[in-house]
Amino acid sequence: MLIREATSEDWPAIWPFFHSIVSAGETLTYPLELSREEAEGWWFVSAPSRVVVAVDEAGTVLGTAKMNRNHLGNGSHIASATYMVDPAHSGRGVGRALCEHSVDWARAEGYRAMQFNAVVETNIHAVKLYRSIGFDVIGTLPQGFKHPAQGYVGLHIMHMAL
User: Fold this and answer.
1) Which residues on adjacent β-strands are paired with residue 44?
2) Is the terminal CB of the chain with fewer CB neighbours within 10 Å at N or C?
3) pLDDT of 141-158, one tens digit each?
4) How far apart are CA 8 and CA 152, in angstroms?
5) Which fold has domain 2-161?
6) CA distance 154 to 86
7) What order of strands is seen across the sheet that includes strand 113-120?
8) Exposed e or buried b for every residue in 83-117, given b needs 16+ CB within 10 A?
9) Structure pTM?
10) How far, in Å, CA of 95 to CA of 101, rounded?
11) Tens of pLDDT, residues 44-100
């Protein structure tokens, strides 16, 4: 697996799994009905933020990550990231590779910590992955997320010092 900078040419491969993940409404706080064009604008952020894709040896996009400052001004030393893995390629370590890549990026860029503001508590695979990499749940917003099947569930704030 190779992780490289994403380009606009990658969007046609990202969009189908981006759309299915977001429209399912189970793991992200994005609007459920983002159009293809709106979604591309949400995902492809400008520098100093960064967007990458994980690809296999054939060049197939397996997943993507968006890395950015979590806050501005005097809080701009905290990084954040969002990840999406094509469900057709889950269980292959793509999420772990993207998360570890983003942590390495944040360290190299001089960030002092990473914080995820809204990890849905029922997204047990993500919570387990982030904990295994070194993130801690530092708080939970009770009933902060309306899960389509499980109702109102908590949103974890997860943090790792770099």
Assistant:
1) none
2) N
3) 999 999 999 999 999 999
4) 36
5) Aminopeptidase (3.40.630)
6) 24
7) 2-5, 50-55, 61-69, 78-85, 113-120, 151-161, 136-147
8) bbbbeebeebebbebbbebbbebbeeeebeebbbe
9) 0.95
10) 10
11) 998 889 999 999 999 999 999 999 999 999 999 999 999 999 999 999 999 999 999
